[in-house]
Amino acid sequence: MHQHTLSELSGLLAGGEVSSVELTRHFLDRVASLDPSLNAFITVTADQALAAAVEADRRRSAGEAGPLTGVPIAHKDIFCTAGVKTSCGSRMLDSFVSPYDATVVERLDAAGVVCLGKTNMDEFAMGSSNETSWYGPVRNPWDLERVPGGSSGGSAAAVSARLAPAATGTDTGGSIRQPAALVGITGLKPTYGRVSRYGMIAFASSLDQAGTLTRSAEDAALLLTAMAGHDPRDSTCVDVPVPDYAAGLSGDLTGLRVGLVREFLDDGLDGDNRKAIEAAASVLQDLGAELVEVSLPNLGLSVPTYYVVAPAECSSNLSRFDGVRFGHRCEDPRDLLDLYERSRSEGFGAEVKRRILTGTYVLSAGYYDAYYLKAQKVRQLIAADFREAFGRADVLLGPTTPTPAFRLGEKTDNPVTMYLNDIYTIGANLAGLPGMSVPCGFVNDLPVGLHLIADHFDEGRLLNTAHAFQQATGWHRRAPEGAFA
Ligand code: GLN
Question: CA spacing 20 to 30 A to 321: which of 124, 168, 244, 451?
């Protein structure tokens, strides 16, 4: 049962071959027996899930079901869920029970999904390995000694290990695409403004975007259709019509111009990884696409730019967690200053503190022009590079990550090596573009991801490219063996 994709499960539910209650029980049982070795979930909402499944089955027998009615999914613990703990991977919010639902949660609930629980993540979505979570690291189902990537590592590991058919995630600098690549699944980060950020705990507001972690592009299309669309509660959520993305998957790539990004395929890329990407490009060519070479000359500046802009925004967004308005409060404060200091010192972990310090520094009066303003200017240059590239190509292609999954603890001592891991993904966030990672092979028995980027609001074309690739290759069907089979 758990080997089926979301779309296949949707078909089985529609055909009456399985009920939502049966499916939900099956996945809850898998979570109970297998998650202890992964740590992918922070909260499992078994009772609510079964109640939602009963309601989904009722809706179906009343003839009111849609394609997502009754399918189980999991939410990254960054999305507010009414009545359920929403921790954002932090001690700061360990006791926070949200009074309301995020728009993403509300829309998926309205479509009838069953939420199995909330998944582990890097603290406040800051990380590339899921090792900064207050709830401990998540493990990669392909090799338990390795990281699943981050920050949506819990969602990624859960989907890869077939503990949930699909999950939500967020991507500020790669946090959907990078973990998707490292665990061999499909990750979609939509255009900035395609999906509402309301109720999604803010990290860097000009970069954050909600998306999906699934087993196929078809599944991502189904979920995006339900999640996307204008929301008056998020002023950056754009009022652009939402197509039926699943219906748009023709699989036809005739005439598609695929841009091979020179800077994506240079010496920084590990040799075997490069072979997998080049093989993927040939598959697209065989399917009728035309390969063209493009360049993003300022790509090398994306990591330093991001690590000024994102901390700056985070230092402002996280100021609300002061033990008074929101978050953990220390015991017996001496006075107000002591309350602020100790609550924040105890509530935040080391990486979050590093970002708040960096962000406060680059925004301070003497350094604002030198760092923050400069970074904003470079951000414009990077966005201009992408605009130019989209004059020549419809979809850009490269690797998602420089290497396959690394070992737990391998990069925790050196934040810069950890940050460099985001080199290929961050550009799309700085430019607000939609991107995907799809499985495209293995290096040393570990999955690697093909990275595709499209122009603003061109998710339809992006998904169709990924779908055609998956129809032709089947890499996305490979599952970790052993305990998770
Ligand atoms: N790895 C990046 C960071 O640590 C991206 C995180 C994200 O996309 N949320 O900030």
Answer: 168
Residue 194 in any domain: the answer is yes
* Residue 174 Cβ < 6 Å to ligand 1: yes
Residue 369 resides in a domain: no
How many angstroms separate the CA atoms of 317 and 130, rounded?
21
Q: What secondary structure letter does DSSP report for 369? A: I
pLDDT at 481: 87
Residue 128, ligand 1, Cβ within 6 A:
yes
CA of 254 to the centre of ligand 1 (A): 35
Q: Residue 172: which CATH number?
A: 3.90.1300.10
Angle at Cα 75 formed by Cα 146 and Cα 247, nearest 5°? 105
Task: Calculate the average pLDDT of the chain.
Answer: 97
Between CA 8 and CA 14, with CA 10 as vertex, the angle to 5 degrees is 115
If one counts the domains in the chain, the total is: 1
**Domain coverage including residue 183:** 6-253+458-484
Q: How far apart are CA 194 and CA 191, in angstroms?
A: 5
Instruction: Give me the active site residues, please.
Output: 76, 151, 175
The amino acid that residue 52 corresponds to is A
Residue 427: inside a domain, yes or no? no
